Amino acid sequence: MSACNCFSDHFNKENFLSNVDARVKLVVTLALIIMVLSYKGIMFPLVIAGIAFLVCVKMSVPLKILALRIAQPLFIALVVLLLKMFFSGTEVMFSLNVFGFELTGHRDGFMDGMKIVSRILGGVSLVVALGFATPFIEFVAALSWLRVPKAFIEIMMFAYRYLFLFLDDANTIYSAQKNRLGYIGIRKGLHSFGILTGSLVLRGFEQSQKTADAMIQRGYTGDTPLLKGEPLQLIELVAAVAVVTAGGAVWMI
Q1: Phi-psi map region of 185: left, alpha, beta (phi>0 left; psi -120 to 50 alpha)
Q2: ∠ CA(38), CA(90), CA(96), 5° rounding?
Q3: Of 65, 55, 62, residue with least CA distance to 15
Q4: Closest Cα to residue 45, out of 239, 243, 247?
Q5: What is the tens place of the pLDDT at every residue in 189-211?
Q6: How many Å apart are CA 110 and CA 123, to the nearest integer?
Q7: Distance between CA atoms of 11 and 53, rounded to whole angstroms?
Q8: pTM of the model
Q9: Which of 20, 30, 36, 209 could form a disulfide with 122 if both were Cys (CB 3.0 to 4.6 A apart)?
């Protein structure tokens, strides 16, 4: 399985959300994200994260791909939790001696960290579920319908177009480095990773200039043709209102 398939529309197959208008899915997701971010406690974001996970399972998304999509946000959430627990708060929960350093875990810091973690999980899970349920082109058309600035949409489309080229380049460079024993030991591995990162950054700048020149030579004026959405279905609007209303009722508990 290539790296491109992990992050492309490869898994946007037919499912129970495929035929739902992308604008409806986007509005519902945004409404739920606002609720997740504004909730004062922990349970509502975790419930939303659980529901989003079940939706992904219902869409037959491979668990390995799902884990790859949420791995980085989970790592960030873990770091935030540890920082809040050990470096903020006043109620001592436990203490550890690590290499001569005294680390004290605080109950109130842990709870504050859990609030942030729950919001990260809830928001990311919603975005991941939306990504699996909506092809990128339909998603961009829905953003245009919401009057998102054209410059933002243009940058997003170009970034999506060249993301997979850079992933292939990164895989090629990594394979070459690995075959030359570039990742034997921590020091050598960090050096090789730095070279890989620098090469990708330089290629990104070079490709951006080439793309800009090519678009100007072809008479590009900033007007990107997008899909034109059909009239919204009444049943989809009713279902969207019901989902948002149900989420709002749970949010208020």
Answers
A1: left
A2: 110
A3: 55
A4: 247
A5: 899 999 999 999 898 888 888 88
A6: 20
A7: 15
A8: 0.80
A9: 36
